[in-house]
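S.,

Sequence below, as promised.
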Amino acid sequence: MVGMGKHILALLLTTLLFSTPSWATNPWKDPERIKYPPLRFSPPPVKKEKLPTGITVFFLENHELPIVHISLLIRAGSIYDPPGKEGLAELTAQVMRTGGAGKWTGDEIDVRLDRMAAHIEPIVRDEFVLWRINALSKDVKEVWEIFQTILRNPVLDPRKLKTALDLKKGELKRLSDIPDKFAFREFQRLYFRGNLQGRQPTEASLDNISREDIVEFHRRHYFPENITVAVSGAVRREEIFSLLTVTFTEAWSNQPLPLAISPPNISLPDKPQCLIKDTPQAVIITGHPAPPRLSPDYYAFEVLDFILGSGGFRSRIFQEVRTNQGLSYATGSFYRPKNNYGLFGTYAITQNKSAFLAFSTIERILLNIQKDLGNKEVERAKNAIIHSFVFDYSTPRQIVEREAEAFFFGWPDDFWSSYIRRVKEVSLSMVTTVARKYLVPHQMMVFILGKEEACTQFQKYERMDRKP
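The prediction came back faster than expected:
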């Protein structure tokens, strides 16, 4: 038996060593050479209607699942925080949700929603608050009753406010222990210093916020004309519009609309800014002024950003800084277009001793792309952007929220429906033009967070006094 076992083992080893695996007989194919049919993108049409109060509702009926999604975009984001009370918008939304409404305490609301497997939650952004409501179709009337009470008649329990303040202060204290998040927060504050976009909550600003401030912020920003609604799912138009009409017309007066946000006045420091922190890795972030979303340069810059660093493994920054030189595990670029301004940036998290090498490598990439870009790279980026774009329309909620977003910000009616066509129209010369126009070395801010060893590699750097 022992001898037979040896023969079997020898046979198995021979099979493993000399047999050809199936994958080896099929040569690897470049994904770009794979033939596939043209992309057909035709999302279902969204209905757009106005209530008697003037509030605009976007509606997409879909009965694949017995679920209703309701989203509200409200101009009540952090950019509207009064000076010295940064954090007020976030706290207002949070305490509206947790602090009770009408005859219910916050805990009672939680129990009722849990019983129905429903969800109500605010997401606070810089320019708006997005309230999202999920409910089963059979419960939508009851869930909407709870939400409209939160929206119109929040209790704003002082105890819940204290809890929210304590949690936010704890979050700020922990932030300095997460170098990348802390670095991006300080970069934002520094890049937009002197502007609304650069203000950040601090313990001092949170200490200035009272319940009276929250009551006033709610009164000033939560009213019908300041709200855009998106509804999708298994609900009939007549049913949901009946609920919305009652909510937004009964004894609820409008306030003056918030003033439009002016574009920031950017004045970039002429020296690299360094914030000393004892951390094993340095974070280097750069920032350039970039085209606004409604600029003719927007689509070409989207392609440029993808090629440079937001396109993942095949982007230039990732390939050179991480793959070829091994300087950084996390590196790339980002593009944040707003209505009347834009920001383009790059980042790298690297060893302190490699901080300048990582930065200079990225700087060289930004300069070289202006003269060595080719059609193949542009076409690959365009195809990737277009094919990823369709995934933003994979659910009814995404479809209807996108249309509501475009209306909310005053974009053209065909902004999203023409997006694919506009990206396809981007040419090599257009991308090269925007690279030369916006990637200007003397219009770049450089921010470093790390040990002093990282900063001393940069000539004439300026040390920041702010304590992490």
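The mean pLDDT is 92.

Coffee later?
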